[in-house]
Amino acid sequence: MAAESSPSSSPSVASAIDFLSLCHRLKTTKREGWVRRQVENPESIADHMYRMGLMALISADIPDINRDKCVKMAIVHDIAEAIVGDITPSDGIPKHEKNRREREALEHMCKLLGGGPRAKEIADLWMEYEENSTPEAKIVKDFDKVEMILQALEYENEQGKDLEEFFQSTAGKFQTELGKAWASEIASRRRK
């Protein structure tokens, strides 16, 4: 059993609750792509991150991949959206501006958390994901796309919508064998 964190390495109770209260927005902010396509009861940002975390958790062991790190990365990769919202390509905001806004939001959230090792871990995981700089980041980037097309398939089946654009936006963009395999399985189920 792991030892409980010492007070000096943990955020204060107040800063932890402040941070978690801000993260509540992730549970209530709907994913913008689904809203724009008039999907009924669209998933929230937190819904999306949660299933990505499950993807990392259930994925088979892959040599040289830290699965626990992937789970953590999946649950923080969109955390800045608690402040900036779900910015999509159709918003017309240049990528560098989106990155600037998200980085600023992340810095604010880490300060709210009181800095320290937990805030640094969140910031480091987020940056690693954004920079696509490690094998873990690459697989989590693939989980991001896989989760979106799986959700699109579910909305097509449940609501009779044509969400082809979501599948097209990911075509040829998977970086890992696992991502490619899962995307292929989703595509085959869509053709049935």
Description of the molecule:
This protein has one domain (13-191): Hypothetical protein af1432, CATH 1.10.3210. Helices cover 67% and strands 0% of the residues. The protein contains 10 helices and no strands. It has helices at 13-28, 32-36, 45-58, 67-76, 81-84, 95-112, 116-131, 135-159, 164-168, 177-191. α3 runs antiparallel to α4 and α3 (45-58) packs across α8. The longest helix is centred in the last third of the chain and has 25 residues, at 135-159. It starts with 12 loop residues before the first helix and ends with a helix.
Give a brief rundown of this model:
This protein has a single domain, classed as Orthogonal Bundle (Hypothetical protein af1432). It is about 65% helix and about 0% strand. It has 10 helices and no strands.
Q: Tell me the total number of β-strands.
A: 0
Assign a percent range to the helix content.
55-70%
Q: Low-confidence parts lasting 5 or more residues at pLDDT below 50?
A: 1-5
- How many domains? The number is 1
SS class: mainly alpha
Q: How many distinct helices?
A: 10
Radius of gyration: 17 Å
> Looking at CATH, which topology would you report?
Hypothetical protein af1432
Major sheet size, sense and barrel closure: none
What CATH first level would be assigned? Mainly Alpha
The name of the CATH superfamily reads Hypothetical protein af1432
Order of helices and strands: HHHHHHHHHH
Average pLDDT for all residues: 94
Subunit structure: Homodimer.
Pfam family, one: HD_3
InterPro entries: HD/PDEase_dom, HD_domain, YfbR/HDDC2
GO molecular function: 5'-deoxynucleotidase activity; metal ion binding
